[in-house]
Amino acid sequence: MQQVNIHAAKTNLSRLIEKAVNGESFVIAKSGKPMVTVTAYTPPPDPAKRIGFLKDGLEVPADFDSMGSEEIRAMFDGAK
Questions:
Q1: DSSP string covering the chain, please?
Q2: What is the CATH number that goes with domain 2-38?
Q3: What is the pTM of this model?
Q4: Between the CA of residue 61 and those of 4, 11, 19, 53, 55, what are the distances in Å?
Q5: What is the pLDDT of residue 79?
Q6: Is 26:19 a contact under the CB 8 Å cutoff?
Q7: Confidence at 52, pLDDT banded by 50, 70, 90
Q8: Cross-strand bridge partners of residue 78
């Protein structure tokens, strides 16, 4: 990974940004000490596109609200 001092980064910022966009990350250093890594921005997935992604992949049982109620009641009553 290329390391660039702050002064050189300011002078060549446009060129360095193009490299980052094309997948070539680089490090900006101050007096030879690495300070930050610059990589291309990847936007997070749009949450609106995830709504309904399991629409046809799941089936909720009719007794969903009462599933396991007997076992839970037995645990509270002390039965095993």
A1: -EEEEHHHHHHTHHHHHHHHHTT--EEEEETTEEEEEE----PPPPHHHHTTTTTTT----TTGGGTTHHHHHHHHHT--
A2: 3.40.1620.10
A3: 0.55
A4: 59, 64, 53, 19, 15
A5: 62
A6: yes
A7: confident
A8: none
Domains of the chain: which residue ranges?
A: 2-38, 47-77
Q: Could you give phi then psi for residue 32, rounded to 5 degrees?
A: 85, -5
> Which pLDDT belongs to residue 80?
55
The two tokens of residue 65 are 């609200």
Burial 40-71 (b: 16+ CB within 10 A, else e): eeeeeeeeeeeeeeeeeeeeeeeeeeeeeeee
> pLDDT higher for 33 or 58?
33
